[in-house]
Each structure stands twice: as C-alpha cells, then as structure tokens.
Amino acid sequence: MTILQRKSRKRARHAKADEPVTETSVLSTEDTESRESGTAPDATKELPRVTESNGEFRPSAGGWIARLLTWAVLLWLLLAVPGNVLSPFDFGVSDINLAIAATIFAIIGLSLNVLIGYTGQLSLGHQAFVGIGAFASAYVVTDLGLSFWIAVPVAAGIGALQAALLGAVSLRVTGLYFALVTLAYGLFAEQSLFSFAEITGGDGGKPAERPAGFADDHLFYYLCFGFLVLVLWLDWRLTRSKAGRALQALRENPKVAASYGVDVKRYTLLAFVVSGTFAGIAGSLMAHHQQIIVPGIFSFQLALVFVVMTVVGGLRNRIGVVIGSAFFASLGEGGGAGDGGGFLERTIGLPAEFTGIVIGPILLLVVITLLPGGIGQLIAPVKNWMLGKRFDRHAGKLKEVEVSDVRA
Amino acid sequence: MLDEIGAALVVGVLTGSVYSMVALAIVLIYRASRVFNFAQTEFGTTGLFAAFVAVELWGWNYGLGILFGLAVGICMALATERLIIHPLRDSSRVTLLVGTAGVALAAIGIQFWLNNEQPIRQMPRLVEGTAAAPFGTPVTYQQVITFLVLIAVAVGLVFFFRSPTGLAVQAAQQESTASELVGISVRRVSMLTWGIAGLLGGLAGVLAGPNLTFSAGFLTFGAGAALLPGFMAAVLAGMRSMPGAVAGGLLVGFVEQLGALSIFDEVQGSRALLLFLFLLGVLLLRPQGVFVREKAAV
Amino acid sequence: MSVLEVNGVSIHFGGVKALQNITLTAGEWEIVGIIGPNGAGKTTLFNCITGFYQPTHGTVRYRGRNITRREVHERAALGIGRTFQNVGLVKEATVLENLRTAQHLETEYNPWIGIAGGASSFFEEGRITRRGRQLLSLLGLSEIAAEPVADLPYGMQKRVEIAAVLATDPDLVLLDEPGSGMGPEEAHELGEMLLALRKQFGLSIVMIDHHVPLVTRVSDYMYCFNFGEVLAEGRPAYVRNHPEVARAYLGEEPDEEQHARENGQVDEVREGEHVS
C-alpha cells in the first residue's frame, strides 16, 4: 500500500493541468506540505478540487410528499381506473380492451428489447415468436383441455425453444444477415407454420377461452398487468445480475467480454431464451384475450410495428419501452382494439389501421436521428425524480441508437 | 412433372427479373453506404402508385406516366439518402437498417392512408396480351418486357461502370478518403448511387405492378413481394457482384416457383418455406455468396 | 515449469506472415518485456496466446497444458488476463460495473438464478461489489467508481483497465502497451505499480510497450520483435544494447541523426539514456 500512496502524492505534485486529481492525493499533498514546511498549506499550491456531488441526495419533506402523491396517482391510473374502482371515468369495453392490448404489447416490447437492446440482434420476425406462443397456448387449452395456468408456461417454453433455435443460427450468421433470416422466418411462420390447420385451426383461427374466473375483461386486465409486473421484475433482475452484465459486455465489446471469461455463445443463447419466454407469455395472453387467435394478424407489418415501438420507446429502457409499446397498442394496432378502434380514431378521425403505420415510422425516424434514447430519454428525469433522486433535466441522454456495431 | 418444372423455370425467370432489379439496387447501395436498404421495394411501390395516379387519375399518356413514376422513385431514394442515410452515416449498420425500415413503413402507411377508399388498384399493362405459353403457362408481353428491361439495365450498368463516372463511383465505394483526395466527391457519388437505386426500384414497381392487382406495400409484402427474394439474391451475389445479383434474382425466382409444384400441394405456404430454407442454407453453408467473382469488379 | 510457453508459433493472414516461429516463455512471477516497432507482431502474439487467433503452426502452453485450441473465455477461466491497446472496457458502463463484469467468473451463481432473483445471487452481488471497491481503492480509483468509463480521461481509463484485469483473479497478465500515452514520469510510476502488484498478487506478467526504459527497468527477461520474428532475447541490458534492436527501431546506426529523427521512437529511447 505504501508504494501506491507514495505514487499518488508524487502524482499530485506533477499532475498535468487537464488531469483531474483524485481527492485522496490532494489531501496527501496538504499533509506533506504542512509537515515539511511546518506552516499552513499554501493556497496557491493547492490543486483545484473537482467537486462532485456524489453524496447522497435526500429529498426534502415536501419533496417526499410530492413523490408519494405522484406514485399514488400513477398506481391509481394503472390499477383503479381500468377496473372502474374509485374512478370518475367509465372504462368501457373498448377502453379496457385497449388497456389489455397495451399490457400485452408492453411485454412484447420488453421481449424485443432483450434482443435488440441487450444483445444487439435485430429481429424482424418477432411476430412469429409471439404467434407461436399464442397458438401453443390455444392448443393446450382447446385441444388438450388443460388449464390456462399450464398453457402459459407451455407457451413460454415453446417460445423459448424456437428462440433458442434462432439464437443458434445467430451464432453463425451475424448482424445484418441475421436480420434477414428473422425476416424470412417471420414470413415463413405467417404463411407456412401458422397454416397447419390441425394445430392452428386454419384461416378461421383457433379458439382459446379465458381461464376460469377471468371472463370479465376488467379482471383479465389485472391478470395481464400482473404478468407485466412479473416480466418487468425478471427483466430488472436480468440487468442487475451477471447475465445482464455479460450481455452488455458482449454487445459493446465482445473481445473484452471473452477475456473476462464470458462465454459469448452461451449468453447469446440465454438472451434469446429470455426473449422467447417473454414473447411466449405475451402470445398466450393475446390468444386468451381475443379468445380466438387467427394466423392473419401475425403479419410482417406487425413485426415492423414491434421494432418501431421498441426503438421509439428507447432501447435498454424498461419504462420507455413499456410506454412506447402501450402507445402503439392504443393506436389500435395488432387487432388489439377490437371493434372500438384506437383512441386516435375517435379523437382525430384517423382510421385505426393507419395510425400506427403512419405515425410509427415518423416517430421512429425522429428518434433515431434526433432523440436516440426515445421515450425513455424523455421521461428519464421524471423517473429519477420519482425514485427519490434529484430532478436532472439531462438524465438519460444517449448519443446514438446503439443497436450493435456489427461487421456484416 | 417435367412440365411443371419447366413452367416453374419460365415463371421463375420472369418473376425473378423483378427480384434481380431489386437485388442490383441492394448490392449497389450496400457497396456505397454499407447499408441493407429495406426501403428498396417501397421505392418501387411508391413509383407504381405515382404512375398509376398519373395515368389513371390524371389521364396522362402511359409513357409519361411511367416516367413520372420513375421520377418519384428516384426522388424518394434521394430524400432517403439526404434525410436518413447521410445524418446517420456514423451510426451502426443495424441502426441504418432500422432507419430504412422506417422509411419503408412510412411509405406503406401513407399508401394505406391515401388509398383507403379503394384499396385494390389495377394498372394497365404496357402491352396487353399473352406472348406465348411454354409448358402450358401463359406468359404475358409485360413479363417479357420486364425481362428484357432487366437485360438492358444490366448491360447499361456494365457500360456505366466502365465509364469515367462509373469508375469514380467504384473508387469512392472502395476507398472513400483517397477518392476525395483525387477530387471525387463522395457525397455526389452517394447521391448518384441512391438515385440509380431509386430508378431501379421504380422500374421494378412500374413493370411488376400491371401484372397483378396491387395495393399498399405491393412490392414489399403484397402480391409482388420482392424484398426478401431481392435480398436473397443479393446474398447469393455476396453483396458485391452485380452479375451475381442478376443471376441470383433469376435463381431465387425459380426456387420460389418450385414451391408451386404439385408435390407441395399439401404444404401450406410452401414458397415461404422454401425461401426460408434456401436462405438459411446459403448463409450457413456459403456466406460469402455463390455468384461471386474473385475480383471485386462490376 | 514455466507459466507460459509459446513454442514455434507461426501465423499468416493471406500472404502476410505475421508471426514466424516464435518461441517465448514466462516463468512464475517473472516479468517478461516485449519491445519492437509497430507491426512487428507483438499484439498478434497476444491474440494467439489469448485465443483470438489460431496459429497456423506451433503450440501455446499454460502451466504445461496445451491451450492452443481453447476458446478465449476458457483461457480466461484458467487464469490468463489481458489488457488491450485501445482500452478494453465496457465504455458505456460505470467503473464499478466494469469491475463487477470483470468478476464474471468469480460470480458464483447460476445466471438463471440471478434472473429469477434467487437469494444466493443477492449475496454474491454484494460480495463482488465489495471486492470491486477494494480493488478500486487499491489503485486510487475509489472516487470515480460511479463514473461511466467513456467520460474518463485516457490515462484513467487505463488504470481502470488494470483494476479490471486484476478483478479477473489472473495468474498471468498480458499487458498490451500499458504505458501508451504516458510521459516518462508516468511510465516510471507505472513501472513501480507493476512491481508492487506483482508482489501483492503473485502475478506473472508479459508486457508489450514502447517505453524501452520502462520495460528495461521492470523486466526480468526481454524479447525484441521485428517483422514477426524474435530479433533478440535475453536480459534487459543485453537486449537494450543489442545493435539489431537499435537498428530495428531507428533503421540505421544510433548516431545517424537524420534517420533517428525520422523514426518516432527516438524520444523515448533517448530519454531512457538520460534517466538510467
């Protein structure tokens, strides 16, 4: 230790002007100086202190109250209003269907975020991931007569399995070419895989009834919301644990990741499995929400909408992705709206089928050129504030929508 | 069976002509901007719609209408280069791909929106009527013309790239810094390349459209879906070779038509299945491309 | 038994023979220095030792085991750590996050348990965070633990990189130009630090650098590379005074002024003459 201490003191004496000096060395300089000369340290010899408000920020009492109130309002909006509990609004059938679609899309966004945001792999066939989950779940309930609560894990598992297969392909086929493979895979799933009438019920679709007790749309919303919370938690644990760090390293700098001992292949597959699991869950919920699942909705346009909503939401930003996905769902995409049409249709008169597909790409282009962090970047200050930190306008700034730097 | 394969070959080559045009543009743009241009087929659909509007709604002369359509395709390509590709030139390539996908989606969205009352349109052919019926499959004049245009375009490109301008383009693609130093404006080259891509896209659109009815997103995922086959042909060309793109497009057309063989009657969506397996096979077994020459020439 | 044994390693890329028949050893707790002009194949050798490249001939042995065909992450697990020429860190993450990532192999819980939120993962996370902070404190980097690496100045990034490589708990550390961008004073301090770290952690070190005086002072044994071959090897004093070595760096006899000026290596070599 002594050698290093001595080094840092010498460093302080000879520090170059543009090099920030650590606080320890500044203190050491003072010690040496006063000990050597026997006088108080000379202010002119002191090196500038780089003050950093690293210390814990504690909100004031008023600040706490404001935050608690905001949390309360948020929870009220999410939980009470859709259930018409303690609410002056009347959440009708179409409203609640939009809310359900929003939660399902949020789960899909989180699933795609694992691939694009955490692993740097672009999936243009994600509708297939969801569709497989949907049909698996419908099959389990309708053909095998098992409970919904068994169907969901099965759907998750099958979603994970097909994702793993695709992941294995991604190990041999990089970046842009892999995106092409997912595109072909999505089209193949839509036109071929989902057409096996025995399993998918053909063009007419496959029935998938609600689990017992959840026939009421409002209750089903709470069910979906619960799954969303579960997925959010799993995603949170992923990023906070060694798998998440391994993914971040292998996305940004695979050589460094490997030299830290990260098995690039294994963790890539892990990411795909996680993504597929989330997508499978979403698919299952989608099937049982609509109670009949038709192959036709899993189109290429849906795949593009998924990508757009994830990027607009903000890559690697959970809350942003949730909001972005919910937004696109509320525009009436993916058949989630039922007959009521999206809210934009009813406010502006722009027909449901088009809103997502016109507004979406415009938002996407705005995000990747001007606001790389997407919605997540916009709300980052608010989010930090709500978590008890200082309100910082510049939080969450990203320089570029970094998907991955791949040699194609 | 032999008849069927023959028919598949003929139809494949004819539909493949469109794929080759798309592939040529994709290869060009990849060589210029290192980008997978997902908006390529939308240059075509937009051009097609423009031509349609000119001919059917404004009553223009067919030839002028076609030229108008091509012009629109070129403009769209140039706009994409200016507004998306150029600002993002330092971003990762996947980001650029997402950007072009956004352009494609925007175009499709606008087509849906403006086309709402009557989603399905029809464009008259350049020359009506059936030219021949080899192997029992009717071949229209339109399809033959499409094929001939492809050949003309391919030959034209060969000559173009041997010309001084063309050599400058190649130089800029291979070594942009050195080219700048020699006085070649990389900026202009980029715009020229995208302009050519827009032209190729427009050609694909106005030639393929009249063969079938069309609606929004026609050339990308609709009846004339050429985006994925075009990319597959480009992959076969190793993303580099233009003759490879031509050959690749015709081959992909043929493989796709094999899905229409009667032995595949049981299999739903056999075409998509075949394309998927074919793409996987090529990428896993010969990722450097099949129709690639040793030297990075035209 | 030596820790590292490179035996007859050759590698070529297309027509270029990047390495030809390289034989190099590093013993327990030895510091081996590698010098040589740019393009001599030094980093290529590191890439062969760590597994980023597969040599066309020859073997690499670590503690007697043949690791020539092993994957990069497997070699890391065996105890080989490495730094990179252009700072090998996860730049968008914070310093402390990098230290945690570097302890990937030390983090003992199944990644799936981590995702599911099992109790063992929380405990391990705390442990590796503490260990990371200790390492940062050792290198005087505690202040910047929460800073994103990308925001740090180059010199500081290099120190973080050393902390990270120590976090992987290596026995053998390959340092690729740890002194790049440093002036002679800083390079001297770096040398002191390396000697101290070797003692504290019981490391064997192989380092590439252009600060010939630094390498000379710190190494127990040196190699000079040129054009993919070992030009000279031996004790530092021997290598430094070897005429071939001077010629490799300067192109001509050392007292040819104009040739010396043409070659950018001059300042460092000359400064070395003054200091020692």
- CATH architecture descriptor of the domain at 79-185 and 196-218 in chain C: 3-Layer(aba) Sandwich
Q: What's the mean pLDDT score of chain C?
A: 88
Radius of gyration of chain A: 26 Å
Approximate strand percentage of chain A: under 5%
Average of the residue pLDDT scores of chain A: 78
Most extensive interface: A-B, 54 and 50 residues
| Gyration radius of chain C, in Å | 20 Å
The secondary structure category of chain C is alpha/beta
Low-confidence stretches of chain C: 268-276
User: Low-confidence parts of chain A lasting 5 or more residues at pLDDT below 50?
Assistant: 1-41, 48-53, 334-349
What does this structure look like?
The complex is a heterotrimer of chains A (408), B (298) and C (276). By secondary structure, chain A is mainly α. Chain A is built from 17 helices and two strands. Chain A has a two-stranded antiparallel ribbon with strand order 1-2. The two termini of chain A are 48 Å apart. Mean pLDDT of chain A is 78; it is low at 1-41, 48-53 and 334-349. With 298 residues, chain B is an all-alpha fold. Chain B has a single domain (2-285), classed as ABC transporter involved in vitamin B12 uptake, BtuC, CATH 1.10.3470. Chain B contains eleven helices and two strands, in the order ααααββααααααα. A two-stranded antiparallel sheet of chain B has the order 1-2. The longest helix of chain B is centred in the N-terminal third of the chain and has 32 residues, at 2-33. Chain B is globular and about 60 Å long. In chain B, 54% of the residues are buried. The mean pLDDT of chain B is 84. By secondary structure, chain C is α/β, with parallel strands linked by helices. In chain C, helix 7 (184-201) runs parallel beside helix 8 (212-218). The radius of gyration of chain C is 20 Å and the shape is globular. At the A-B interface, helix 7, helix 13 and helix 16 of A face helix 4, helix 9 and helix 11 of B.
